[in-house]
């Protein structure tokens, strides 16, 4: 097991600089234990740097090593604490980069702390000079570690039971314009959209408490709108009240107020940080609240394939940290998202066990050990005319969020909401009847539009809108697919 | 059914003269998947020649009926309820499974599953218990075939408050009004079934096909036994085969003989005896042959022989 | 008004043929179909009355449709919904739920407001129909 033979220990701990691979961070024979955390990195070494040495360096810098030998290692069970790079493979079709698999002993991590996990795995190592670029592609989180997290406070099943909504995707819309509406006008948009047929409306990521609208004002008008819409339809409605703020104290204050006025859901942004997210998750769990996470900021480190952290890893962390909703891409909409990769994100949110599927960018078998499921949210540049594609791609357990696709309807917000709801229900009905919705989709929508003027208008206005660009983050193991317009 | 009925043309204005429409029954038969079922039947089931013939007749009738529907010649859905009469172990349940498959392939039942029940599944213990029980069974059988074994137990004239009558009334109603939803097969001994039909003419009039299952001949029973053994990787030694033929001849003459089922029980006991014989042997390791072969002694130990021997001894 | 609980409330009322197809879909997924009825349509009225037990062993929608017809005969003046229940691990919950029968007239809901401190308002949703005793609400 120990790579460093006792006889060599004098050499190993002689003061000075030595190669990481010779310090025990490269162990090609190592068999990862069931309880190990395993990470796979995409490494792009500087010219002339050996990929195995680079992988060992990543293992070293993300665990016990520093740039030079330290005798104090010998005061610890250092063989156990050293991370072990055990596999290095070329990336298909990318001659300068490699996949490095590194195993970490469970004792390296504090139970139930995303902050501690990430401080190791994506701490110093991403700025390490011998590497041109480094990307964390995926992680295998052992059941023993998963079980130290509470996970989503509500989860898909309980959220549906609480909302009394089953068998179809939920519908939402982000209030637009993002900025500038007063509380009173803002609530108008919420009321119209919910009454027209949506289940949720949503604050945008950067709606907090600005000069044009104080947060309390927004919350009060929004709840008037929610309750009016509920009485008008007989259905449970909700609006994600964004409680993101400068300090935890402010966030708790806003969340408590949201609870006191009867909201079923609050919302936070990814930019508040992992610790704040976990704090809000625990608060939501204590207060029967659905917790919506907007992934604001993630593209700064998830989008480029060479450097950063893959969104699938963020999604895993967020399921552990405990959010009920997470934005996970639309494929057909305006934001980045290759279909095969996006499917991987959705599976991470919704499955209890996820087998290794390289074509979806899933590098490891992953069990979530009955942790509740996170409801993925598809948001950004989608409209009713794509309903068949959306339902086919994502199934029932997703929030389809039509912002512009609701509010931009020529006959108004209610009409926009109704168009989306009718399109959705018609498509679910047809799918359950066994029809091939991918191919018959436009026909099914046209038939539904015959008894629904708002849908007819929506299909007319947006019929030609597609966002067909090549993805920057496609899986490495199959050619990039793209959704036909 | 709905799909089939919807292809019936509208009785509108007379169609313009067209080339005489044709139907290829042989192609229909091949496309229906029935040949596989009949092959299975021939392969898996010994003898039963008259039954197999009846099954083919019924299939042919339904195939033609389907073709007639296509030309608008059929009048309403055909009655498909059946009665299977015969002694125990003559293959009624197995045939019912095949019948369900045939009806499913031809589109006369939507799912093709078989639900087997007896009186206890249909009739309750107290007032208000029977209707929900019967309806529960009918719901389970919807889309398939309901097989009521020993159906005559539903009718107990000696007890005028018997709840069976309630089940009978519900069954009759469903057999008449929900012919699209399920097919009922009533099964049991021929004589008792006949009395049942006499007492309940409603059933007789709703049953379209009566199939009588004869007892197996001795040769057929031996064949059945050998097939059962082969399926479990056993075989009879030549002498055991002779002895087993004698066993069948004797056993048939005794009471409670249940054809294939009695053969299976006898062989189960023979396997038990073979096992203890092998266990008691002290002459070294066993070969594959030892483990496979049933010897004459494994069968001769049966009390069927003992009883005969005793009778013979007792005889003057 | 028309209450829009359930999966297909924005579509024209489903025909029996359409209902049959949805029921068969549930059965084919391995879900048990359940029939429930109520005359209190409040959105938080979780427990509608059950028409018998969930049908765990039915293989064909016809079995359910017989029960639906029987339920309509008795409670045709009320709301009736069908739901598909999935007992598999990780769900153990309803997977589809839709209304298959409505009262002829749906009077809707009143929203009552009670003003309290700090501009806060306490809301109560009240079904007009529920002002009458159970059983007399839609007849």
From TrEMBL, chain A:
Annotated cofactor note: Binds 1 Mg(2+) ion per subunit.
Ribulose bisphosphate carboxylase large subunit ferrodoxin-like N-terminal domain: residues covered: 25-145
CDD domains in the record: RuBisCO_large_I
Keywords, sorted A to Z: Calvin cycle, Carbon dioxide fixation, Lyase, Magnesium, Metal-binding, Monooxygenase, Oxidoreductase
Catalysed reactions listed for this entry: 2 (2R)-3-phosphoglycerate + 2 H(+) = D-ribulose 1,5-bisphosphate + CO2 + H2O; D-ribulose 1,5-bisphosphate + O2 = 2-phosphoglycolate + (2R)-3-phosphoglycerate + 2 H(+)
E.C. code: 4.1.1.39
Positions annotated to bind Mg(2+): 202, 204-205
Example GO molecular function: monooxygenase activity
Modified residues (N6-carboxylysine): 202
Membership in a protein family: Belongs to the RuBisCO large chain family. Type I subfamily.
Task performed by this protein: RuBisCO catalyzes two reactions: the carboxylation of D-ribulose 1,5-bisphosphate, the primary event in carbon dioxide fixation, as well as the oxidative fragmentation of the pentose substrate. Both reactions occur simultaneously and in competition at the same active site.
Miscellaneous: The basic functional RuBisCO is composed of a large chain homodimer in a 'head-to-tail' conformation. In form I RuBisCO this homodimer is arranged in a barrel-like tetramer with the small subunits forming a tetrameric 'cap' on each end of the 'barrel'.
Protein name per UniProt: Ribulose bisphosphate carboxylase large chain
Lineage: Bacteria, Pseudomonadati, Pseudomonadota, Alphaproteobacteria, Rhodospirillales
UniProtKB/TrEMBL annotation, chain B:
GO molecular function: ATP binding; ATP hydrolysis activity
CDD domains named among the record's database cross-references: AAA
Domain of life, per lineage: Bacteria
InterPro entries the UniProt entry points to: AAA+_ATPase, AAA_lid_6, ATPase_AAA_core, CbxX/CfqX_mono, CbxX/CfxQ, CbxX/CfxQ_RuBisCO_ESX, P-loop_NTPase
Region (Disordered): 1-20
Segments of skewed composition (Pro residues): 10-20
One of the Pfam families matching this protein, by short name: AAA_lid_6
Residues annotated as signal peptide: none
Occurrences of domain AAA+ ATPase (ranges): 78-217
Alphabetical keyword list: ATP-binding, Nucleotide-binding
Family: Belongs to the CbxX/CfxQ family.
Record-linked PANTHER family: AAA-TYPE ATPASE FAMILY PROTEIN / ANKYRIN REPEAT FAMILY PROTEIN, AAA-TYPE ATPASE FAMILY PROTEIN _ ANKYRIN REPEAT FAMILY PROTEIN
Protein name, as recorded: Putative Rubsico expression protein CbbX
Organism name: Nitrospirillum iridis
UniProtKB/TrEMBL annotation, chain C:
InterPro entries according to UniProt: RuBisCO_ssu, RuBisCO_ssu_dom, RuBisCO_ssu_sf
Pfam families per record: RuBisCO_small
One biological process term in Gene Ontology: reductive pentose-phosphate cycle
Residue stretches making up the Ribulose bisphosphate carboxylase small subunit domain: 4-103
Leader sequence residues: none
GO MF terms, alphabetically ordered: ribulose-bisphosphate carboxylase activity
Claim: Lyase is one of the keywords in the record: yes
Keywords: Calvin cycle, Carbon dioxide fixation, Lyase
Membrane spanning residue stretches: none
Keyword Lyase applies: yes
Family affiliation: Belongs to the RuBisCO small chain family.
HAMAP family: RuBisCO_S_bact
Note: The basic functional RuBisCO is composed of a large chain homodimer in a 'head-to-tail' conformation. In form I RuBisCO this homodimer is arranged in a barrel-like tetramer with the small subunits forming a tetrameric 'cap' on each end of the 'barrel'.
Subunit structure: Heterohexadecamer of 8 large and 8 small subunits.
Role summary: RuBisCO catalyzes two reactions: the carboxylation of D-ribulose 1,5-bisphosphate, the primary event in carbon dioxide fixation, as well as the oxidative fragmentation of the pentose substrate. Both reactions occur simultaneously and in competition at the same active site. Although the small subunit is not catalytic it is essential for maximal activity.
Protein name: Ribulose bisphosphate carboxylase small subunit
Species: Nitrospirillum iridis
Gene: cbbS
